[in-house]
Amino acid sequence: MPAWKGIIGKGFTASDFSQYVTTVTFNAWRPQFVVLHNTAVPTFAEWHNVPGEQRMKNLESFYRDTQKWSAGPHLFVADDLIWVFTPLNTPGVHSPSWNAIAWGVEIVGDYSVEPLSPAVRQNAVSALATLHELMGLDPSTLRLHKEDPKTTHNCPGSRIVKADFQSAVLAQIGTNEHRPGAVSA
Q1: How far is CA 130 from CA 80, 113, 151, in A?
Q2: Mean pLDDT (whole number) for 47-66
Q3: Structure pTM?
Q4: End-to-end CA, the chain
Q5: How confident is residue 2, by pLDDT bands cut at 50, 70 and 90?
Q6: In what order do the strands lie in the sheet containing 75-77?
Q7: Domain annotation covers residue 133
Q8: Which residues lie closer than 8 Å to 126 by C-beta, 6 or more apart?
Q9: For residue 183, is it within any domain?
Q10: Is 78 within a domain?
């Protein structure tokens, strides 16, 4: 089993997340793009049945002890908070072809059956815009998990439209009051 990388396990409002990313130091690893996922389990309807801090501990146990992975996705985006899971400055485990080169962002819910909550969508767009700004990434590089050639399921679900997220992220970048700026080499 590979060594567990640890988690941050903290939830941030969108503005606090934007501030948080400016405190992260990037050394050797730099993501090339972001991969968008959905949790499916838990569904959005189930997410708040467990307090967020406990949810993060449960997810840590699942990825580390059950899956035997070295990490999990980087973010879990809910309606109230953006949860940082795997540290943003290290590769996560979320998409077989792209773990080593991309951030993994989980949107809380099962978007094959659930409607996307406006609050979840707004937090997701904000988090994605912050990540893209931080690394100077073009939102057109955003990928859906189901686009990974080694993935066999419909993640992040049929109700998530990549072009809608790309255009919303681009619009958000254009209007952000706080721009963390691209990380320099």
Answers
A1: 17, 28, 26
A2: 97
A3: 0.93
A4: 32
A5: confident
A6: 10-12, 82-84, 75-77, 102-107, 33-38, 143-144
A7: yes
A8: 14, 17, 18, 82, 172
A9: no
A10: yes
| DSSP-derived secondary structure letter, 146 | G
Domain encompassing residue 69:
10-175
Collapsing DSSP to helix, strand or coil, 110 comes out as coil
CB 166 within 8 A of CB 57: no
For 79, which DSSP code? S
Residue 57 has pLDDT above 60, yes or no: yes
Mean pLDDT (the chain) is 93
The candidate with the shortest Cα–Cα distance to 157, out of 102, 50, 165, is 165
CATH code of the domain in which 27 resides:
3.40.80.10
pLDDT at 44 (0 to 100): 97
- DSSP calls for 11-67: EE-HHHHHHHHTT----S---SEEEEEE--SS-HHHHTTS-HHHHHHHHHHIIIIIS
Average pLDDT rounded to a whole number, residues 68-89 = 98
Which helix H or strand E contains 120, and what residues bound it? helix 118-135
In a domain, residue 163? The reply is yes
CA atoms within 13 A on the CB side of 96: 9
For the chain, what is the domain count? 1
Of residues 104, 105, 115, 122, the one with CA closest to residue 175: 122
Q: Which residue has the higher pLDDT, 144 or 175?
A: 144
